[in-house]
Amino acid sequence: MRVFKPIFFIVLLFFPATCLSEPIHAANAPLLFSWPVKCIPGMNCAGRQFRIGYPDLTGTGRSFSCGQPGYTGHQGTDIIVSSVEQAVPVLAAADGIVRWTSDGLFDSCPDPKNPECAADLTTHLPLETGQKATLGFNAGNFIVIDHVHSDSRYLTLYAHLRTGSQLVRTGERISRGTRIGEVGSSGNSTIPHLHFGIYRSTGGYFQPVDPWSGPCNSSSSGLWDTEPPYQPLIEKILYQVE
Question: What's the predicted TM-score (pTM) here?
């Protein structure tokens, strides 16, 4: 049995929200996010090896439900599928503007020593000021979308995408549910999955936020627009792949 080891570092996306030009504001309503993959865990996302990894923003080893997050300090939601060839669509979680994209890296690293696969290769985002922000981990092929609703502003990150699958470009306005790419295994990744991260503008900086509603989530009361389509048994993650 092979153990799926942690592949992300704790990340605080601290950079000024003012470094980004403002998109058009959406209607005055709470900003909630839709499930970012076009499949249902435990049904048609994958087979026996499907798992979900949950955020642990406080680094306490507890997910939103006070259970195991997958590993301590995880900053997003991992949605794991059977294979890159499954071509599982990745969907925009809300209306917004595409701010950053990166493509062309391996779908599955042939050698962990390859520079594209290295755990210490940190993904950076160029800012309009000429500076760079860091995601704190090797995100591989990725898309970042900027969302503004009322007085709230968020970024969503879709990481480890399949090479060549991206269907959007920087600056493009897209709608919730738009197909933007496919689940892959690029960057520092050992199994096909989507790393979905949400970052909220707080005090002029973007910081990670947990979208799952539960007693151990201190960052939000839940940010999903509907109950995510997953099987309760899948909450028990060991990150083991047979």
Answer: 0.80
